[in-house]
């Protein structure tokens, strides 16, 4: 709801849309609030974040969107978020990120604070799809010794792309973009990424002589197997020497924090490795909106409340 109109859920929303009594709507909101599923302006104020005002009726927001909301509100109000307290330029898309362009992070804490507000990029992209195995036999490339895959390499837009066609027709496309990652914050960023992938697909079409595009599937049907997400903040020379390298592993996710040198400039890079195995559009959507599944659960609970209310009304009518 917040993404649609910038507002939270109120008692009136539930009574109007779900047809439940005010008392029941109030109990439901208070229950989810007590469980930490929802939060209010007061919760932010207690944390020292004065970006939301209390309203009547009280507005509740999904806790899974808290970080996103705070960042959005900071952008609207041009709130300085860097420890130095420098005033941020009005109308800046990424206020903290643009500020750091003029002032490097000196300490580990400054870099961590800045990373939270830097734009998200994607690199080390591994894609997969399937072709007729006959194409494998027609290629003249030398087989790799272990898996017998036939590799083919291209340089596209300053990025190195490796295609590997296996005997069973599986095609893996690896795009090494660690020094030139793709930003994926906005819709236009995704459009730019798909434009690049269109070039990647065109090179393969030419390589396997599928000029009429009958065999290589559309990009929408490619699978994103793995990728790395990163945020970069420029650091000074002293920080470059003193910052630690950190790696955390949990389930299928790996998080790293390290110093990255790009074109003789030092950055503190926060990086997360993901194993996805999802269709490309779905995977990118989940990366950009990781809280959608929780929002769907909240919508499901609201539907249950509405259904329970409808059954209650039917019972009353039957008794009458």
SSE layout:
Elements: H1 2-5, H2 11-18, H3 22-34, E1 38-39, H4 41-46, E2 61-62, H5 66-77, H6 95-100, H7 108-115, E3 121-130, H8 134-138, E4 150-156, E5 159-165, E6 170-176, E7 182-183, H9 187-207, E8 223-234, H10 237-242, E9 246-250, E10 253-262, E11 265-279, H11 280-288, H12 292-319
Antiparallel strand pairs: 1-2, 3-6, 3-7, 3-8, 4-5, 5-6, 8-11, 9-10, 10-11
Helix pairs in contact: 2-3
Question: Briefly, what is this?
Answer:
By secondary structure, the protein is α+β, with helices and mostly antiparallel strands. 39% of the residues lie in helices and 25% in strands.
Structure commentary:
This protein has 320 residues and is of the alpha+beta class. It has three domains: 104 residues, no CATH class; 41 residues, no CATH class; 123 residues, no CATH class. The chain contains twelve helices and eleven strands. The strands form two sheets. Strands 3, 4, 5, 6, 7, 8, 9, 10 and 11 form a nine-stranded antiparallel sheet that branches. It has a two-stranded antiparallel ribbon with strand order 1-2. Helix 2 crosses helix 3. It is globular, with a radius of gyration of 25 Å. The two termini are 38 Å apart.
């Amino acid at each position: 709801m917040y993404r649609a109109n910038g507002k939270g859920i109120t008692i009136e929303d539930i009574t109007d849309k779900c047809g439940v009594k005010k008392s029941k709507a109030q109990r439901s909101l208070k229950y989810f609030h007590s469980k930490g599923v929802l939060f209010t302006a007061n919760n932010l104020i207690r944390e020292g974040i004065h970006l939301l005002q209390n309203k009547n009726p009280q507005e509740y927001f999904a806790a899974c969107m808290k970080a996103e909301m705070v960042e959005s509100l900071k952008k609207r109000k041009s709130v300085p978020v860097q420890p130095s307290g420098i005033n941020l330029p009005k109308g800046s898309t990424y206020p903290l990120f643009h500020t750091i362009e003029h002032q490097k992070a000196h300490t580990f804490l400054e870099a961590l604070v800045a990373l939270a507000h830097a734009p998200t990029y994607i690199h080390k992209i591994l894609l997969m799809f399937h072709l007729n195995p006959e194409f494998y036999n027609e290629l003249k490339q030398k087989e790799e010794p272990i898996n017998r895959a036939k590799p083919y390499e291209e340089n596209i837009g300053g990025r190195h792309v490796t295609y590997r066609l296996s005997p069973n027709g599986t095609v893996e496309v690896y795009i090494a973009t660690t020094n030139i990652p793709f930003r994926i914050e906005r819709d236009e960023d995704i459009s730019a990424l798909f434009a690049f992938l269109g070039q990647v697909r065109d090179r393969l079409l030419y390589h396997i002589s599928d000029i009429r595009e009958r065999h290589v599937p559309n990009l929408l049907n490619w699978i994103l197997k793995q990728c790395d997400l990163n945020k970069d903040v420029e650091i000074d020379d002293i920080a470059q020497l003193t910052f630690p390298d950190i790696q955390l592993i949990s389930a299928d996710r790996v998080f790293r924090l390290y110093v990255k040198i790009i074109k003789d400039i030092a950055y503190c890079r926060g990086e997360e490795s993901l194993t996805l195995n999802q269709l490309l559009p779905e995977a990118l959507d989940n990366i950009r909106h990781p809280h959608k599944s929780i929002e769907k659960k909240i919508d499901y609970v609201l539907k249950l409340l509405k259904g329970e209310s409808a059954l209650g009304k039917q019972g009353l009518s039957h008794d009458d």
